[in-house]
Specification:
Blueprint (H helix, E strand, L loop, with lengths): L2 E6 L3 H17 L4 E7 L4 H4 L7 E4 L15 H19 L3 E6 L3 H10 L4 E5 L6 H6 L5 E4 L15 E4 L12 H7 L8 E5 L6 H12 L7 E5 L5 H4 L8 E4 L6 H6 L2 E4 L3 H10 L3 E3 L9 H11 L3 E3 L7 H12 L2 H14 L4 H13 L3
Parallel strand pairs: 1-2, 1-4, 2-3, 4-5, 5-6, 6-7, 8-9, 8-11, 9-10, 11-12, 12-13
Length: about 375
């Protein structure tokens, strides 16, 4: 039996592509063993038990760039982590290893490549992260979500880079029929989808709450995913169909099927979903993201005229009201943005990445 090992997590932006590729592999090679690897402290600790694949959670931690003193325990953690990764590779004996980013991805891919196991990494951002640039020199293949990342990746000798898009489940148009009813929304009114990602965004949520308090959202209805950490703080604003407040969207596809426009962070998985569905978006990058990569993602989308880039430093209830109203009142602009977004969409990315991995694994 062929075993595929997919390491990634920490946030939904790293876990969801791992889950999508796992599903693609299961469809491409029924009967294959697919094993997921994440971190004990990541969102995967909550979500992986709900999925059908075996998994391992490692005691890994993020590397802090600003609060560098928190890295003091890493030398001790690294010894324990390497031993666990080696035991994991010995036990699973994977034919191929894929890293999708996050705390657990780097160590697993690094050790696998060092053993000669065919390995690949997925980079979803327009500005490749440090781990991707480091691992690209050891792995067989690198999969990129956007072509703008390619010039910044240096490959190992014989390595190959593919611009595949970010792995998502292709849009299911049949979801549109019942999407509004699922969330208690009125199918006859425009819907603004708001989400700060799997972890939520307090800064974004606070501005949304203030915007709603001004009454400026009366021309639309709002589907608002606050994130689990701050849900209790904003749950009292739940008043469907005008305002529907949820903690987390899993899966997110029904919400996308209901959305007229979206206000979101600028993680590349979120952007990939928006592009595949052709949803005009207002992107508010997380300013503390590593190397400010979300700002690069938002800029790329704005330059393609597929989204509006709204820096968090410029975000206010009045500015949010202005941008939302500007899109809702201009159907021509929305249509142009939707077309530009779909032009960047790669809904077949999951199947393409799975195909590359199946080829690396050989006949099974």
């Amino acid at each position: 039996m062929t075993t595929f090992l997919i390491a990634g997590g920490g946030t939904g932006g790293h876990l969801m592509p791992a889950l999508a590729v796992a599903q693609g592999l299961a469809a491409g090679r029924p009967g294959a063993r697919i094993v997921l690897v994440g971190a004990q402290r990541g969102v995967e600790a909550r979500l992986l038990p709900t999925r059908p694949w075996p998994y391992h959670l490692l005691p890994t931690e993020p590397i802090y760039r600003r609060q560098w003193w928190k890295n003091a325990k890493w030398p001790f953690l690294a010894v324990k982590l390497v031993r666990q990764v080696d035991r994991l590779l010995d036990a699973e004996r994977p034919a191929v290893v894929l890293g999708t980013g996050g705390y657990a991805s780097g160590p697993v891919v690094w050790r696998a490549a060092g053993r000669g196991i065919p390995a690949a990494v997925l980079e979803q951002d327009a500005l490749p992260g440090l781990a991707t640039r480091w691992l690209a020199r050891r792995v067989r293949e690198v999969y990129l979500a956007v072509p703008e990342a390619a010039p910044q990746v240096r490959l190992a000798r014989g390595g190959t880079v593919y611009v595949t898009g970010a792995p998502i489940l292709p849009p299911d148009e049949s979801l549109r029929a019942g999407a509004h009813a699922r969330f208690g929304l009125d199918a006859g009114r425009p819907t603004v989808l708001i989400t700060g990602g799997s972890q939520g965004s307090l800064a974004l949520n606070e501005v949304v709450a203030q915007w709603l308090a001004t009454g400026a959202a009366t021309s639309c209805q709002v589907l608002w995913a606050t994130g689990t950490a701050t849900y209790a703080r904003f749950a009292h604003l739940h008043a469907p169909p005008a305002v529907t407040v949820v903690d987390f969207l899993d899966p997110i596809a029904p919400a996308l099927a209901a959305a007229t426009i979206a206000v979101t962070r600028a993680g590349m998985m979120t952007i990939a979903e928006l592009c595949a569905w052709g949803i005009p978006a207002i992107l508010v990058p997380l300013p503390t993201a590593a190397a400010d990569h979300q700002t690069n993602n938002a800029r790329v989308m704005a330059e393609a005229q597929a989204a509006i880039h709204l820096p968090q430093s410029q975000m206010s209830p009045a500015r949010l009201a202005q941008e939302v109203a500007g899109l809702l009142q201009n159907e021509t602009r929305r249509a142009a943005m939707a077309l530009a977004a779909k032009g960047r969409g790669r809904p077949g990315a999951t199947a393409e990445i799975a195909g590359h991995l199946l080829r690396l694994a050989g006949p099974g």
